[in-house]
Amino acid sequence: MQLDSPPSTISENTTSVSRYFPLLLLLFAGSGCAALIYEVAWYQILQLALGSTAVSLGFLLAAFMGGLCIGSLVLPRLKLRQKHPLRIYAFLEFGIAILGVLVTLAMPLLSRVYFAGAEPGLTDMILRGLVAAIAMLPSTILMGASLPAIVRWIEATPRGVSRWALLYGGNTAGAVFGCLFAGFYLLRLYSMATAAFAAAAINVAVALVSLWMAGRVPASSDSGETAEANVGVTEFESGSRWPIYLSIAISGACALGAEVLWTRLMGMLLLGTVYVFSVILAVFLIGLAIGGGAAAWIIRRVRPALALGWSQILLALAIVWTGVMITQILPFWQDAALTTTNPWQMYLLDFKRCIFAILPPTLLWGASFPLACAAALRSRDEDPGRVAGAVYAANTLGAIVGALAVSLILIPAIGTQQCQRLILVVSALGGMVALIPLFKAGRAKAAIVGLVAAVVLAAVMTPQVPAVPGELIAYGRQMQRNHDQSTILYTAEGRNSSVAISRWNNGTIYVNVNGHVEATTEPFDMKLQRMVGHLPGLIHPNPQSVLGIGFGAGVSAGTFTRYPTIKKITVCEIEPVIPPASTKFFATADYDVYHNPKTHIVYDDARHFLMTTKEKFDIIASDPLDVFVKGTAALYSKEYFEAVKRHLNPGGMFSLYVPLYESDENTVKSELATFFDAFPYGTVWSNTREGQGYDMVFMGQAEPLHINLDEAQARLMRPDYSLVAESLRDIGVDSAFDLFATYSGQKADLGRWTAGAAINRDSNLRLSYLAGWGINSALENTMYREIMNFRQPPVGLFTGSPESLQRLNLAMERLDAGLQ
After folding, report:
1. What is the pLDDT of residue 817?
2. Where would I find the H helices in 215-314?
3. What is the dihedral of CA 461, 467, 473, 478, to 10 degrees?
4. 576 CB contacts (<8 Å, ≥6 apart)?
5. Which residues contact 801 (CB under 8 A, 6 or more apart)?
6. Residue 165 and residue 812: Cα distance in Å, rounded?
7. Which CATH class is domain 538-706+743-797?
């Protein structure tokens, strides 16, 4: 097929643009939709390999945005000016579809290659970046080339740039749909591969329609606009473009930096499920789309450079608005978000909160790109693709710098409040950069006013950005309910998470991470945390090495310091600020495991560490974040459980904390069915709260489990196990029989309850979507009773003398009687 197009007349092209522009707008919206579907799916796939740390996410973002930047710079420099823009655009869309499918299918293989060569330290960090680049750059380069390709069909005039603005807004509006379509439908019900195929189908449809249009419209980019068509604009801007490039780069840096920052804060406020992150991203894109569309109307009525400068200056007001809304207004809103059992209603209310908080500044950032394009024009004879591509590249490059700087450096260094203040000041500086050339040329009195306003607003509004309340870090969406019921003792904002330590009015100490409680000194919580360690620790005849997943309060890991045979305790924790923070207040409860010479802490994503380490362990004890938290479902997949099994020494044991609260039946059944699929000899052990079901411990091993009661009790009575016995007594467990009385079933009996449940696999992470659908449920006791109804006598599981078996039966009966 030929890319060349025959010459056309000016009138033909003018008519074609007016007639076919709505269809072109729809096509470009389709491109945006497909791009966001790919982005959501690829991020999820690559996080399985690279981990969910800020460093890993930074590499993913840099690779994705870097591809867009490269594509927008490279395409205008290719000798394609005489080719039909719509045909070029069509072939780009075909290329994205092909590469999108290939990348999605190849990512699992790429992950295996990565795991085979990954090592701790700088080498691994470089390898993570290389993997992300190999996976995403080819497709994203083509995505970045699509804007400069398509604008070549539209004239390089103020009227033409207003159409560029509409295309930008339409593309972003399509991205909104793609974000929500992927997050609430495709990935909730299907696999990541299915999502990529859906995106590819959209690309192909867009390409086919573009080819059809290319056969019906001329390729000329000259419309022959009259002077009357450019009402309000008598001439193009003059002088260097570099102030415009710098201003739009600063705008991109501030926009993406703020997105990273506000996503973190809103994630705490709304609870960081996969759906909440989709909602936050969608609202951000909605603002960009509306702002871009509004710029289409503004461009021909104002001096673009002046409007660009003022849009950055007014961000000082908008940033303060968002900061106040997130920290002082939204936490105290009265609605049904905490009580409704309808997930659609709950996330609609979350959407409403995000609109009120985030929309105002995103409108201004959305208007900035089209205004910069118009300000960068110097004559109607310029290549539209080169102008738009250069502006887009500057904006995207700034976005990369802003996102990486905020997430990797600024938040852990100066905190979220100071980050917002810095973004406010830098935005004002970006506005001044755009206005200074106008001031020097003496061509706009409003430029003088703008420069003064930038200084005044920055000085006045920066102190108004509020600090993030410790209660928000501690309680998130529960902040209003828990207000004034505790004292915040300590807060810290790390690279990956924010942590708050609180003392409730009854004296209980809580460890809270990202707006949700993770561990407490409540008796029922202490029992569960120690059960995670004591169950495998007491059953294993001679444990020597332990891997703990998640530090939390350190109680589960600290349990292993009581065992005389254990020589090494490795703890994998994603957030470096948590262990020292928890140790300040939990050193007694966790036996100061942080400072124990046996303890070695690895700061990494737990899945990434397990997949890349060569070590094997006698016990792996997992106490991760709740499964509804974005990214945690990767620690509950069948493939992850199989990796755990590979890293167990012969006779090794795996324990896993599983909450029943803030969960529903589909979620718990999926967790249990997936666990039994990987550990067919697994068992379930229960922890109750005031006689009601509350949470559980899953325990698995490669071989059938046989617990000799006499041997376990004898070990517990030995002098060298006195610290173990003391640790158990502290949680109301006076013997091995009391501990093992918490037994609640195995696959032979509970398999009937979980029949037909979704298996959580790496290819779909179904559990992440199930768990986010049932967080307002209050079914913990109902589900526990159902499990107990399916439990059968554990024939062959427990062995020992008749007296020991009788003592176990009596202990189980006493525990069961407490549930009546």
Report:
1. 79
2. 242-270, 274-298, 304-313
3. -70
4. 494, 495, 603
5. 709, 710
6. 70
7. alpha beta
Closest CA to 104 of 135, 127, 144: 135
Strand partners, 546: 569, 619
- β-strand 599-603 against 798-799: which pairing, if any? unpaired
> Does residue 12 surpass a pLDDT of 70?
no
Quote the crossing angle between the two packed helices 343-376 and 384-404, to the nearest 10°.
130
- Give φ, ψ of 811 to 5 degrees: -65, -40
CB atoms within 10 A of CB 335: 12
**Residue 548 contacts residue 571 (beta carbons within 8 Å):** yes
At 331, phi and psi to the nearest 5? -60, -20
Torsion of CA 29, 33, 35, 37, to 10 degrees: 180
Prediction pTM value? 0.94
**Terminus-to-terminus CA distance in the chain, angstroms?**
77
SS (H, E, C) 689-738: ECCEEEEEEEEECCCCCCEEHHHHHHHHHCHHHHHHHHHHHCCCCCCHHH
> Identity (one letter) of the amino acid at 364?
L
Nearest to 611 by CA among 638, 576, 646, 637: 646
Q: Per residue in 193-239, pLDDT tens?
A: 999 999 999 999 999 999 999 988 887 644 444 433 443 443 566 77
Please give the backbone phi and psi of residue 82, each rounded to the nearest 5 degrees, phi first: -90, 0
In CATH terms, are 1-221 and 538-706+743-797 the same topology? no
Domain boundaries, the chain: 1-221, 237-383+406-468, 470-513, 538-706+743-797
Give the CATH number of domain 1-221; options: 1.20.1250, 1.10.10, 2.170.130, 1.10.150: 1.20.1250
- From residue 45, give the alpha-carbon distance in Å to each of 114, 127, 573, 761, 797: 13, 16, 21, 11, 39
